[in-house]
Write a structure and sequence with these properties.
By secondary structure, the protein is of the alpha/beta class. The chain is 47% helix and 16% strand. The protein is built from 21 helices and 17 strands. The strands form five sheets. Strands 3-2-1-6-5-4 form a six-stranded antiparallel beta sheet, with helices on both faces. The model has no long low-confidence stretch (mean pLDDT 85).
């Protein structure tokens, strides 16, 4: 014979349904009030309370209280182990007290202070991840009847729901704090530092174009901060809450670049075991930043032009057109107008991406920003290394301001990072900075060398200097030295440069 479900079991089933909205808690205080009000109503209690345990003070504080004296009772707190609620919080065991006057654990001062007569109490613990975080209690039945063991069972479900709500709220609060901290960290990481007239003009122009859909071309030497400017344009615009996708066009060969931009379908080529979503699709409704677009091959330029003109693309190996709404920001350190004139870059694509053009000034044209930038980078590396008392000496700062920084902000950042890691003492000195400590000392200037030996030594140092400032990129180094890349490769081999 199957036993019919009791009214208590039915109540518990109904209570567990509340978990559907407990899991989506937003306003914790209001949710806890709803839980306790529901408990009071379903159990026909004269009053009820929810007390939370403060782990530092080991005191129970009234978080929610119902009944005619609910507002008054919230001014009190109870020590862990004090009274019936304190005993339950300390032991983790529920209590049902039919007559509090006959129980030695009864703490009558609160009831007497607020003028609230109490006959019986049911109290259960709230547990979160195995730890007691508080208690829930009801006081007397409104109709004068006794509180029964089945009421204690129902009250335990309410305590479980309340603990779940608190746990969810704490997780949400923790996640919000992490997101806030991460945003602050990213803003600091991608902040444009400086107050020079040249930089203020650039930032002003960037903010003007931020709210438009116009494609924007950022020009400037390597290391000037074109990506930072692109991020500023994105953050200041209407698409700030949508994705910003960054891709360096020079970092990938043509086939991989197409795959990165447009993605591929399963089986499109050997190794394509599943569909891949490309950068344009990921950037839908947001912004895509195409860095070093001047390095893009002619065939890729044609494919990029099509998506900019039509707003649709095809995944590699696919035949279904995919529409996207993407704001394009491109950047290059090349003389792109000369490339257009020489036929190296498509004229129609140039006009498409060059609706708005912003020139990022090199560091040598905004020297007044160098002290501020240097201090900014020093603060970052001091925090990472734990060298909190480190400062930049006046001599080092003077040299930094005078130096032309061919590698721009990137070179300065790397120089200061090395100075913090490798330097000794509490000051950054000129010798700590690789830019000055490692300036080429040409053996060609020494007495005793032949003219050929001096010329060869100079060539080797000159090649090394340019390779350092282009991060080892031979094409860029050859371009800076106005020689063919193949000739540079022969010189590198000749002088044994690694």
């Amino acid at each position: 014979m199957v036993n019919a479900p009791t009214s208590a079991d039915a109540s518990i089933d109904r209570l567990k349904e509340i978990t559907n909205w407990v899991s989506s808690v937003q306003d914790l205080d209001r949710l806890l009030e709803l839980i306790i009000e529901t408990a009071t109503r379903m159990m026909d209690a004269k009053a009820s309370s929810l007390l939370l345990l403060d782990q530092k003070s080991k005191k129970l504080q009234f978080k929610v209280a119902t009944g005619e004296k609910g507002a008054d009772v919230k001014q009190f707190e109870i020590n862990l182990g004090q009274g019936i609620a304190g005993h339950v919080a300390e032991t983790g065991e529920p209590l049902l007290i039919p007559d509090v006057a006959r129980d030695s654990r009864w703490y009558k001062e609160i009831s007497e202070s607020i003028g609230f007569a109490t006959q019986s109490i049911a109290c259960v613990p709230m547990k979160l991840n195995g730890h007691i975080i508080g208690v829930v209690e009801i006081i007397d039945k409104a109709d004068g009847s006794a509180i029964l063991p089945k009421d204690l069972k129902i009250l335990s479900v309410f305590a479980e729901l309340a603990a779940q709500a608190i746990g969810n709220a704490r997780e949400i609060e923790h996640d919000k704090k992490e997101i806030k901290d991460l945003r602050q960290e990213l803003q600091g990481k991608y902040e444009i530092i400086g107050n020079s007239k040249a930089l203020r003009k650039v930032i002003s122009d960037a903010i003007k174009v931020a709210n438009s859909k116009a494609s924007t071309l950022l020009l400037g030497e390597s290391g000037t901060g074109k990506e930072l400017l692109a991020r500023l344009i994105h953050r200041a615009g209407v698409r700030k809450d949508e994705p910003l996708i960054v891709l360096n066009c020079a970092a990938l060969p043509e086939t991989l670049l197409e795959d990165e931009l447009f993605g591929h379908e399963k089986g499109a080529f050997t190794g394509a075991a599943s569909r891949k979503i490309g950068k344009f699709e990921l950037a839908d409704k947001g912004t895509i930043f195409l860095d070093e677009i001047g390095e893009m091959s002619p065939s890729m330029q044609s494919k990029l032009l099509r998506i900019l003109q039509e707003g649709v693309f095809y995944r590699v190996g696919g035949n279904k057109s995919i529409p996207v709404d993407v704001r394009v920001i491109a950047a290059t350190n090349r003389n792109i107008e000369a490339d257009v004139a020489e036929g190296k870059f498509r004229e129609d694509l140039y006009y498409r991406i060059n609706v708005i053009q912003i020139q990022m000034p090199p560091l040598r044209e905004r020297r007044e920003d160098i002290p501020m930038l240097a201090q900014h980078f020093l603060d970052i590396f001091k925090k990472e290394s734990g060298k909190s008392d480190l400062v930049i000496s006046d001599a080092a700062m003077d040299l930094m301001v005078e130096y032309d920084w061919p590698g721009n902000v990137r070179e300065m950042k790397n120089a200061l990072e090395r100075a913090v890691v490798m330097g000794n003492g509490n000051q950054v000195l000129p010798d700590d900075l690789p830019t000055f400590a490692c300036r080429p000392q040409y053996p060609g200037m020494e007495v005793g060398l032949t003219l050929k030996e001096a010329i060869d030594a100079f060539k080797k140092e000159f090649i090394l200097l340019n390779l350092r400032h282009t991060d080892g990129n031979r094409s860029k180094a050859a371009q800076k030295m106005k020689i063919q890349r193949t000739y540079l490769s022969r010189l590198i081999a000749k002088y044994g440069i690694r």
